[in-house]
């Protein structure tokens, strides 16, 4: 008896974007297929019929003998039973996220507010009225592979903006898109899916102190849906090698230096191949030499195609590793010229 698979929206935990996953179910009667998808390209074309706003980015576990067919008003893909695999999936992404220089952050006319209960049942207008304005008229775009510094005094709104980007603070006013997610329309239950598509590096690390390096990373991967142990081990090896922690798998966090602990946090942020990493003062507790090595690592990650947004008070990083710089001041943000910044400093 053949399997029939119906396509529906889902999020695959260990991919960087929304996916279509194929749910297998048995039918009592075989269905005669009317179109044969003889190649991956045709398979992708058929998938798009189910999700016209999406494009195939990379199919998984595909074999030949895949058919498109219709049963009443429902559309299906039909596969021979002997080649069905349990986790057939096709990774997709929105149309506006397909270019090499895709925009991973887009904010327009955004205002950020602090409220006592960010996820209150009150309407957005009432929460705005009761909240405290932190930032207004925020317009910002960040593309893949860009490195962006956020600078400004303590309390100027850098952390609040980062929290808005990973939905710790709801977006109540303006338009915001992060990694393909609409922040204004984002339901609370969908926030974990957003965070699986981005990496977050906290200043306070938030490591599991009772588990070694490997188990810290494995815990996150299991929590975000990774199942295959061989894949988990391979990915952990990859990210530890990338951040320079080879052969540290079985060290406990307290056995690592401050810089190594921060590298472990960066490795954790990289596990799900994010399109964007948000780093809130990641070097604040590190000595200058170690901090410099962490910033250098972030720039290397950005060069590989992952966007980095990093808040910092240390302007020497900007001088050593120039990149886009956004200044927070008087409840506003503005992009500044790096050479102008240091020209002003040198004259003081």
Question: How would you describe the overall organization of this protein?
Answer:
The protein is α+β, with helices and mostly antiparallel strands and 348 residues long. It is built from 10 helices and 17 strands. Strands 3-5-6-1-2-7-4 form a 7-stranded antiparallel beta sheet, covered by helices on one side. The protein has a 6-stranded mixed beta sheet with strand order 13-14-15-10-16-17, with helices on both faces. Helix 6 packs across helix 7 and helix 7 (258-270) runs parallel beside helix 8 (288-303). The N and C termini lie far apart (80 Å). The model is unreliable at 1-100 (pLDDT under 50).
SS strand fraction: 25-35%
By secondary-structure content and strand pairing, the structural class works out as alpha+beta
Shape: globular
Order of helices and strands: EEEHEEEEEHEEHEEHEHHHEHEHEEH
Question: What's the tally of helices?
Answer: 10
Uncertain residue segments: 1-100
């Amino acid at each position: 008896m053949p399997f029939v698979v119906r396509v529906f929206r889902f999020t695959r935990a260990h991919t960087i974007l929304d996916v279509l996953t194929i749910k297998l179910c048995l039918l009592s009667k075989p269905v005669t297929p009317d179109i044969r998808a003889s190649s991956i390209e045709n398979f992708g074309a058929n998938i798009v019929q189910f999700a016209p706003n999406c494009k195939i980015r990379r199919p998984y576990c595909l074999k030949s003998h895949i058919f498109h067919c219709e049963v009443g008003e429902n559309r299906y893909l039909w596969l021979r039973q002997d080649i069905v695999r349990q986790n057939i999936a096709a990774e997709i992404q929105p149309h506006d996220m397909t270019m090499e220089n895709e925009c991973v952050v887009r904010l327009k006319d955004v205002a950020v507010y602090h409220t006592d209960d960010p996820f209150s049942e009150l309407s957005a207008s009432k929460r705005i009225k009761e909240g405290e304005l932190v930032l207004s008229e925020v317009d910002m775009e960040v593309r893949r592979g860009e490195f962006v510094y956020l600078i400004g005094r303590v309390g100027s709104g850098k952390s609040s903006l980062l929290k808005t980007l990973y939905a710790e603070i709801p977006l109540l006013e303006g338009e915001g898109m992060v990694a393909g997610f609409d922040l204004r329309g984002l339901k609370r239950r969908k926030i974990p899916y957003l965070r699986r598509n981005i990496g977050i590096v906290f200043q306070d690390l938030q490591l599991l102190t009772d588990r070694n390096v490997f188990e810290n990373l494995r815990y996150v991967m299991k929590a975000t849906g990774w199942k295959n142990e061989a894949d988990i081990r391979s990915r952990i090896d990859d990210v530890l090698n990338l951040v320079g922690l080879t052969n540290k798998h079985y060290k406990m966090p307290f056995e690592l230096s401050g810089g190594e602990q921060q590298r472990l946090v960066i490795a954790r942020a990289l596990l799900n191949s994010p399109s964007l990493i948000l780093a809130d003062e990641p070097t604040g507790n590190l000595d200058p030499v170690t901090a410099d090595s962490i910033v250098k690592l972030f720039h290397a990650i950005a060069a590989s195609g992952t966007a980095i947004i990093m808040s910092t008070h240390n302007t020497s990083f900007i001088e050593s590793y120039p990149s886009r710089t956004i200044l927070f001041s008087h409840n506003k943000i503005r992009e500044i010229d790096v050479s102008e910044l240091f020209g002003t400093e040198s004259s003081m």
